[in-house]
Amino acid sequence: MVVTHGSLQRARGRCALTIGNFDGVHRGHRALIERVTEKARELDLTSCVLTFEPHPREFFAAEAAPARLTRLRDKLALIAEAGIQHVHIARFDARFAALGAERFIKEVLIDELAVQWLLIGRDFRFGERRAGDYSALEAAGRRYGFELEAMPDVVFEGARVSSSSVRAALAAGDLRTAERLLGHSYTISGRVAHGAKLGRGLGFPTANIILRRPPPLSGIFVVEVHGFGRGVASLGRRPTVNPVAMPLLEVHLFDWDRELYGEHLRVRFLKKLRDEQKYDGLEALKAAIARDALQAREYFARHG
Q1: Do 36 and 156 belong to one domain?
Q2: Domains in the chain: how many in total?
C-alpha cells in the first residue's frame, strides 16, 4: 500500500475513493473499503482512502475530542490488510480547515487525487464550516465527470456500527461487544520505554508503553502480545505510586525474562479484570498484582 502525506502533484492515475477518519477500522469502515476495492477492480482504478491527521475534532477542540481507538500506524496497517492500494493523509491544520467546499473538491479530490468514483455516507460534510454535503458532490460529479455513490449505515446484530459505539463498549469494559463491532480484537501498539522499574522491584517486571493521547479504556486486563506471549496489563495513571498525568500501558508478560526496551509491542486486550485502584502502600499493591496475574493465568487455562 502506498501512503502519501500533505499536498500532492496530480495523481498518475484515476482512483476509486472513500473519505473519513477510519478510527478503529471497524465493520462499517470495512464495508466501505470492500465496496471501494470492488469498484476499483471493476473500473480498473486505484483503490484509495483519504483520511486526516489530526482528526478534525482534535484540531477544533482538542480537550473535548473523543479518545482515539487507533494510532495512525495501526490504522494504516488495518487499512492495508483490508486491501486498499493508496492512503492519502491530509494534514488537518488551519489552512486545510479554511478550504471552502468547492476548493476542497477541485484542489483535493480532482487535482490531487484524480477521483473518478467516490463513495461516502449521506451525512458526510466537508469544507469550511462543513458547508459541503452530498448534493454539492452530486453537482460536482456532473461538472468534473466522477461518479458518486452513497453508502448506507452498516448494522451488525441490530445496532449501527460506529466509532462512538466501539468507544462506549470499551469505556464500559465490554471487550466482547467492542470486538464484535470492530470485527477484530481491540489492540494498542507502541514502543517499550524505560520506566521507574517499580514492577521489577515488586516481582512483576513490566514493559511500559507511553501513550500520547488518552485511550478509550482503563483498568487491569488480560492481554496477549503478538509474538511475545500472554500476560496481564495495567492501563491507567498509577494512583498508588508515581502517578502520571497521561495514562500509561504497563504489560507484565508471563514466563518472559528478556529485556524488551525498544521493541514495538502489539497488545491485544482480551478481558477486563477490574478498574484501577489506589492502594495503601507497596505491599497491598503487590498483593493486588499477584491476584490479577493469577486471574489472568486462570483465564488462559480456561480458554486455551
Answers
A1: yes
A2: 2
Summarised one tens digit per residue, pLDDT across range 213-248 is 889 999 999 999 999 999 999 999 877 777 787 899
d(CA 303, CA 51): 38
Find, among 218, 236, 235, 211, the residue nearest to 171 by Cα. 218
**Residue 11 sits in the same domain as residue 154:** yes
pLDDT band at 160 (very low <50, low <70, confident <90, very high): confident
- Give the structural domain span for 98: 2-160
Give the domain CATH number at 17. 3.40.50.620
| Tens of pLDDT, residues 8-39 | 767 667 999 999 999 999 999 999 999 999 99
Q: Note whether residue 179 is domain-resident.
A: no
For the CA atoms of 103, 104, 110, 111, the dihedral, rounded to the nearest 10 degrees, stands at 70
Tell how strand 264-274 and strand 219-225 pair up: antiparallel
Can you give the pLDDT at residue 57?
Answer: 85
Query: Please, how many CA atoms are within 13 Å of residue 276, restricted to the half-sphere of its CB?
Result: 18
Q: Report yes or no on whether pTM surpasses 0.70.
A: yes
